[in-house]
Prior knowledge:
Helix content is about 75%, strand content about 0%. The protein is mainly α. The protein folds into two domains: about 1-65; about 65-99. The radius of gyration is 23 Å and the shape is elongated.
Amino acid sequence: MRMQDDGLEGFSDLISKFTDTISDIAPKYAEYKTQRSIAKMQMDRARKGLEPIDTAKLSPTIRIQPELPPEMVSAGKSYMKIAVPIVLGIGLLLFLRKK
Length: 99
């Protein structure tokens, strides 16, 4: 039984790292998209012979990220140990049922 718990814990750690990575990448991707659209706008204005827009005068991006209390984070991790195998099991059953 201990071997199975280690496997689930390892998978839970993998899911946790994946969600952390996504939460790190998402704001950077949004910033990239914003910078790209600003560059496109500036190029369009240049083609039309207009002055470039001073981007410092544009409204800044406001980022809001909720901070969860530690007890909620630890509770979420314990639920993940239960939820992940259940969701995988249901997915496997649906996959096998269609065959």
